[in-house]
Amino acid sequence: MKGWLQMFSTAWLGVATHKLRSFLTIMGIVIGVAAVISLMSVGKGSQASILSRIQSLGSDLITISPGFASSGGVRSGFGSATTLTQEDAEAIAAEIDNVKQVAPANSSNLQLVAGSANMNARVTGVTPEYQGIYNLKIADGSFFSDYEYQSSARVVVLGSTVKETLFADADPIGQTMRMGGNIVHIIGFLESKGNGIGSTDDAVVMPLTAMQQMIAQTKTSLGERRISAIALTVTDVNKSDEVVADITSLLRTRHRLSSTADADFRILSMEEMAQTLTETTGTMTLLLGAIAAISLLVGGIGVMNIMLVSVLERTREIGIRKALGAKEHDIWGQFLVEAAFLTFTGGIIGVIIGWGTSHLISYFGTMTTLVTPDIVILAVSVSIAIGLFFGFYPAWQGSRLDPIQALRSE
Amino acid sequence: MIKLEGITKVYPIGKRELAVLQGVDLNVATGEMVAIMGASGSGKSTLLNLIGCLDKPSAGNYFLDGKAVGHLNGGELAKIRSQKIGFVFQQFNLLSRISALANVELGMRYAGGSDRRLALQALERVGLSDRANHRPTELSGGEQQRVAIARAIVKNPPLILADEPTGNLDSRSGAEIISILTALHTGQDITLLMITHDANMAHHCQRIVYISDGRIVKEERV
After folding, report:
1. Given an 8 Å threshold on Cβ–Cβ distance, is B93 in contact with A316?
2. pLDDT range class, residue A2, cuts 50, 70, 90
3. Do B87 and A324 touch (CB under 8 A)?
């Protein structure tokens, strides 16, 4: 213990003797560590914000959308056809294991008029389960009940943007508005979900039963009622892949697709999407970190440079210490501790500055940043490792000096 | 204390070899004070470095305190230096960045650990306790050499080697140094070997060894 204290005080002496030089060396490490932390915090931040958005939808969510329409060899985009039917949804609920809830949805763009305000919005007819599946939060009023669904009540729940556009600050609940050619009652409106996947801000939600009465629902050649999407939740996210596979084979059978034909629907599992996005943002984080690590490496080379100079100009001191009985490990220990001290100090200051920078980025910029303990530990341990790595050669060189030669040097 | 048998030291210079010591036999008893004299290049510094375990002989046997040390490795030699040998150099060789006291403490550093109290005592013995916190650059040459002596004796080594300790000093400071060394020797039973050009100084010793061309050519009792 005492030996270490002495080694540390000797190293401190080396650092303190050349304050400006030590400061500049430390700055090299500070910049490297701060760059690693702030850049990686950008990556981590975007990862976290994407994940939290997916989690707000629920990672147990699976959505099925219709495939493409083909006409004369020209293939339109996904969703251009309406291949899904309400009967598909019922079959999934009845036949697939590990499915918690199934909600068919039929959307249509309709003109909404309330007082002097009007807008075009996507109106979605759904079952009551839809609220639970999409985690819809009511800002005020209520969602429609099972009774209202059964009785095809002409009630609607507004997305937050729709509410803003049509009613501004006024209370819409209990009011009526025109939707297409019909009058509907407003019973509630939703909290904003923000932009992005699964946002309902621009939508109007109503019972599917009521919507079928208002807008004629087209039917397939088999007499099934066409809908525009099916959403469902699974009982266990680990079974997502299994459920997706089961639904695929069920729908292929129901849609009478030959084994070689492309599917006329698309299944998207949030669990799978979360994995893909986590991988993508993880790669991005690493890439940002790697770019920043280059500056850390340059800082490390700076440490080595200074340590070589330090050993050279203290040749005589090394000779004196050796004459006094210092062993090789005493000498290299002294220089190694000095190098580690420079990089460790740089690492700590770098963490503080990097942390501050990442807060400034999220405060003034549009990006979310997140400094996690693993980034900090990574940056500091890499900086110390660099100090030891680049400090080792000069220290070793110093320790091998011949005491007589060293004492003779000027 | 010291027993040298047929010590030679050969340095390679390019393709040729330079024999600096060519068969030195020397016995120094414990508590003896010996002066080594000789012209520049006669090999006396090389001899002192060998005795001080800073260097290894090319051939021959060296017994220090009854133990053969001629062929020990670097780490073992360092251990002997740290425990048994105190050096006093012509150039003082103090660290200029630290105080006199810290320089003295450095003398114990590799001998098992510093002790401020002992370091202060050592400074007192060379009459410099009031200068403990001065840096070497703030001290006169004589004072610096006294700090160096304190550094050499602080770990109580049985052997002190001095390489022209007064070579860089004026005659008054030189006399001071020689009286301190003599006092140490008489009071402490320390074995002292000293290289000098100064016949006056050499006569403070009990024996004078003359070296020429790597051989001991004459010994005389004072």
Report:
1. yes
2. low
3. yes
Helix (H) or strand (E) holding A153: none
**Chain A partners of B82 at a C-beta cutoff of 8 Å?**
324-326
Shortest Cα distance from A323 to chain B (angstroms)?
Answer: 7
Mutate which of A6, A317, A320 to test chain B, going by most B C-beta atoms within 10 A? A320
What average pLDDT does the structure give for chain A?
86
Distance CA A195, CA A188 (A): 20
Q: Which amino acid makes up residue A10?
A: T
Of A133, A131, A129, A195, the residue nearest A160 (C-alpha): A195
A328 at interface of B, judged by CB pairs closer than 8 A: yes
Tell me the chain B residues in contact with residue A18 when contact means C-beta distances shorter than 8 Å.
none
Give A21-51 pLDDT, tens digit per residue: 999 999 999 999 999 999 889 888 888 888 8
Q: Is the pLDDT of residue B192 over 60?
A: yes
Longest dimension (CA), chain A: 104
Nearest CB among A316, A324, A404 relative to B109 is that of A324
Torsions phi, psi for B10 (to 5 deg)? -120, 125
CA end-to-end distance (rounded Å), chain A: 34
Q: Kindly determine whether residue A321 and residue B114, on different chains, have CB atoms separated by under 8 Å.
A: no
pLDDT on residue B28: 93
Query: pTM for the full model?
Result: 0.72
User: Between chain A and chain B, how many beta carbons pairs sit less than 8 Å apart?
Assistant: 62
Q: Where are the domains of chain A?
A: 2-53+276-408, 82-263
Render pLDDT for A189-220 as a digit per residue (tens, 0 to 9).
998 876 665 677 888 999 999 988 888 777 77
Question: Exposure pattern of B45-69 as b/e (b: 16+ CB <10 Å)?
Answer: bbbbbbbbbbbbbbebebebeeeeb
Reference A52, options A358, A284, A368; nearest CA is A368
Q: Which of A3, A404, A407 sits opposite B93 (nearest CB)?
A: A407
ipTM of the complex: 0.93
Cross-chain residue pair B79–A327, CB shorter than 8 Å = yes
In 3D space, the residue among B66, B67, B81 whose CA is nearest the CA of residue B29 turns out to be B66
Give the CA distances from residue A1 to residues A5, A6, A8, A239, A330, in Å, rounded to whole numbers and listed in that order: 6, 9, 11, 56, 14
- All structural domains of chain B, each given as residue ranges with its CATH number in brackets, are 2-221 (3.40.50.300)
Please enumerate in sequence order all residues whose Cβ is within 8 A of that of A289, keeping only pairs 6 or more positions apart, or say none. Answer: A36, A39, A40, A43, A375, A378
